[in-house]
Amino acid sequence: MNPQEYQQFYDKVGKVNGWDFSHVKCVSEGVKWDFLNEVTKICTKSDLLLDIGTGGGEALLSIAESLLLLVGIDLSSGMIETAARNAMKSGVPNVRFLQMDAMKLDFPANFFNVVTCRHSDFCAKEIAKVLVNGGVFLTQQVSEIDKLNIKEAFGRGQALGTEPGTLKNRYMAELSEAGFTDIQLSEYNATEYYQTAEDLIFLLKHTPTIPDFGQNELDYHILHKFIQDHQTEKGIRTNAERFMITARFTGC
């Protein structure tokens, strides 16, 4: 998928679902952290937080009481529409959602105490502009061999064929160049068990793991064979590989 195709995909998914996977039944083994817990650990009630690639805002709304003000941005208009609806339903008063390009942050300099980004692209130099001196950036990202057995079964997939570690190495180098220090890396490769075929189909239809999944009838034949090959007593087995970077901005 090229950038335009990703944008169209996220707009479509965003209007319907946002990033709400709460009803998907999946058991995970080997997960080393919960990203939202890691975020709240370093926040105080007086902090201002910016969340890049906020999706439907579900995560941000769930931690709103931990901070003074939270701003979520997303390039997808569909995601922001869903986030606005979720905010209205929640009645949470200290969260704002804006459509904005992460590559050009339109905020005052040194405005936020914390910037977060989960499973979305970011620009280290732009984040450095809007963080206070001593501010913290946290990101969780999907590694190249995430859902590897699924991507191999389909012969296509997000980052399939890319050298493992490419994304984390790039991001760590960019953060260092932008003036971040105390750059910490954590990683895990967990095993996931999707409980039903419907749970796995929902994942594939609402994430870019397999580009254009379901548009060709052959995809469902491949999926049927994949489920037969990877069905276990615990569920349909695949993997979730993640890395998390924490860095503090101390100036260039």
Task: Give a structural overview.
It is a single chain. Mean pLDDT is 91; it is low at 5-19. This protein has nine helices and eight strands. The chain has an eight-stranded mixed sheet with strand order 1-7-8-6-5-2-3-4, sandwiched between helices. The chain has helices at 3-16, 35-41, 58-62, 77-90, 124-130, 148-154, 166-177, 197-206, 218-230, and strands at residues 26-29, 48-52, 69-74, 95-99, 112-118, 131-142, 180-194, 236-249. It is of the alpha/beta class. The radius of gyration is 18 Å and the shape is globular.
- Tell me the strand order in the biggest sheet: 1-7-8-6-5-2-3-4
Question: What is the overall shape?
Answer: globular
Q: What is the helix content?
A: 25-40%
Sheet/helix structural class: alpha/beta
List keywords for this structure.
globular; single chain; 9 helices; 8-stranded mixed beta sheet; 35% helix; 252 residues; alpha/beta
Short summary of the structure?
By secondary structure, this protein is an alpha/beta fold. Helix content is 35%, strand content 27%.
List the helices and strands and how they pair.
Elements: H1 3-16, E1 26-29, H2 35-41, E2 48-52, H3 58-62, E3 69-74, H4 77-90, E4 95-99, E5 112-118, H5 124-130, E6 131-142, H6 148-154, H7 166-177, E7 180-194, H8 197-206, H9 218-230, E8 236-249
Parallel strand pairs: 2-3, 2-5, 3-4, 5-6
Antiparallel strand pairs: 1-7, 6-8, 7-8
Helix pairs in contact: 1-4
